[in-house]
Write a structure and sequence with these properties.
With about 200 residues, this protein is of the alpha/beta class. The chain contains 9 helices and 5 strands. A 5-stranded parallel sheet has the order 2-3-1-4-5, with helices on both faces. Helix 3 packs antiparallel against helix 5, helix 4 crosses helix 5 and helix 6 packs across helix 7. It starts with a strand and ends with a helix. The structure holds adenosine-5'-diphosphate. The site of adenosine-5'-diphosphate (ADP) has 14 residues, from helix 1, helix 6 and helix 9.
């Protein structure tokens, strides 16, 4: 089974490409979804978060108040490390379980959708790294349009990530998403044909 790591930068079009891959019928393991699942009430990471951060970070319904927790760790690097050390191992564990599930099922290819593929330590897990790229100007425009953010908010978010140009050097294949959605689809198909997925 070939494992493809899909990544990008904020508003580069990763979700757009991920939806195309899903349409091909290829299984996708989504790191963002998993990172929400592992902090659901009753899960191991949930228990550890409440033990470390106190029940003040809970909503009335018992769910973790992600906004509140986010603002705590955003301001404090030590707390951020504590949270990551709780959440990341559980995310990796869940991803491994899902990889094993698809492997046993006999899937030919799966895609791991991982926003921080290069920033994290998961590159060793995948056989191919696929980057969705846009130029800085398009990235800023699409981010502002999608999230209705100000230019400053959008720039702050873009600048908090590894620049897309740096990620280019680390990828096995790059989809240039500056053009139309259909053009992106054609590029994706060509790459998958090259990798013998189709
Ligand atoms: P990401 O998942 O990388 O953050 P999205 O897939 O959400 O990015 O794309 C960012 C925004 O740009 C979305 O509003 C999306 O609809 C739009 N978009 C993505 N690709 C294109 C494209 N090729 N042409 C025009 N708009 C696009």
């Amino acid at each position: 089974m070939i494992k493809i790591g899909l990544t990008g930068g904020i508003a580069s079009g990763k979700s757009t490409v991920s939806a195309m891959i899903k349409n091909f019928g290829i299984p996708i393991i989504d790191a963002d979804i998993i990172s929400r699942e592992v902090v659901e009430p009753g899960e191991e990471a949930y228990k550890q978060i409440v033990a470390s951060f106190g029940s003040d970070i809970l909503l009335e319904n018992g769910q973790i108040n992600r906004k509140k927790l986010g603002s705590i760790v955003f301001q404090d690097a030590d707390q951020r490390i504590i949270l990551n050390n709780i959440v990341h191992p559980q995310v990796r564990k869940s991803m491994l379980q899902k990889i094993n599930f698809y492997e046993k099922k006999g899937e030919k290819a799966i895609v791991l959708d991982i926003p921080l593929l290069f920033e994290g330590k998961l590159t060793g897990w995948v056989d191919k790294k696929l980057l969705v790229y846009v130029d800085p100007k398009t990235q800023l425009e699409r981010l502002i349009n999608r999230d209705h953010s100000t230019e400053k908010q959008a720039l702050d978010r873009i600048r908090s990530q590894m620049p897309l140009d740096e990620k280019k050097a680390l990828a096995d294949a790059i989809i240039d998403n500056n053009g139309s959605v259909d053009n992106t689809l054609q590029q994706l198909k060509a790459i998958f044909r090259q990798w013998h997925i189709f």
